[in-house]
Amino acid sequence: MKFRSITFDLDGTLLDTVGDLAEACRLMLIDLDQAPRSETEIRHFVGRGMAVLVERCLTRESAPDAELMARGIAAFQRHYAAVNGHRTEFFPGVREGLAAWHATGLPLAVVTNKPAAFTEPLLERTGIAHYFQAVVSGDTTPHRKPHPAPLLHACAALGSVPADNLHIGDSKHDIETARNAGSAVYCVPYGYNEGEPVKAADCDALVADLGVALRLAHSA
Ligand SMILES: O=C(O)COP(=O)(O)O
Ligand SMILES: [Mg+2]
């Protein structure tokens, strides 16, 4: 295996979090007296962090003003903190896949656009926190994915460098992040990607699940 470290996206790659995100958005929109959004809309809105999710929920003919955005973020944070993990599910193959990756002895990290206040409890609640030597969230570095900073930060924390790192994600944001940082990138097809299928041509490999990713990485 040529890789010395592995970084994983969280939402849409390891965990299906849309049920909880949709519930927090539903309660936020009720608080703000705004029209509801469907779970499908929420699935398409996820990927660029909490503020963009809230902004997309609140955008109708025009973007929300600063005051509505501030109220939206405060309400979302309150509700998501209460429901985070309740309806979250593992995607198929993730539990076995993480165990198999862990067994390789390579250092593993999570690199997510989810704010740290929600990432850390979610990893604990789902029982996978112990797999990761580093967790880089949407507010750990000054810039979120697709900026390379979170991936560079993770590689440094793992004692690796981007050229020796494999990033595994579900979206174009992960592909861009990896390209910007200089890492290889595999994508899973089952995540969110703003409602578009991830294109095999855009990443180094489209892999059905984390186990397939490991088998492919062994021969890379
Ligand atoms: O919070 C988001 O928008 C998505 O998070 P992710 O980077 O783990 O997919
Ligand atoms: Mg994702």
From TrEMBL:
SUPFAM superfamilies in UniProt: HAD-like (SSF56784)
Pathway membership: Organic acid metabolism; glycolate biosynthesis; glycolate from 2-phosphoglycolate: step 1/1
Presence of keyword 4Fe-4S: no
Database matches in InterPro entries: HAD-like_hydrolase_sf (IPR050155), HAD-like_sf (IPR036412), HAD-SF_hydro_IA (IPR006439), HAD_2 (IPR041492), HAD_sf (IPR023214), PGP-like_dom2 (IPR023198), PGPase_prok (IPR037512)
Active-site residues per Swiss-Prot or TrEMBL entry: D9
Keywords: Carbohydrate metabolism, Hydrolase, Magnesium, Metal-binding
Cofactors (names): Mg(2+)
Catalytic activity, as annotated: 2-phosphoglycolate + H2O = glycolate + phosphate
Molecular functions per Gene Ontology: phosphoglycolate phosphatase activity
EC nos: 3.1.3.18
Binding site for Mg(2+): D9, D11, D170
Protein function: Specifically catalyzes the dephosphorylation of 2-phosphoglycolate. Is involved in the dissimilation of the intracellular 2-phosphoglycolate formed during the DNA repair of 3'-phosphoglycolate ends, a major class of DNA lesions induced by oxidative stress.
UniProt keyword Isomerase, yes or no: no
Domain of life: Bacteria
Protein name: Phosphoglycolate phosphatase
Similarity section: Belongs to the HAD-like hydrolase superfamily. CbbY/CbbZ/Gph/YieH family.
PANTHER family attached to this UniProt entry: PHOSPHOGLYCOLATE PHOSPHATASE (PTHR43434:SF1)
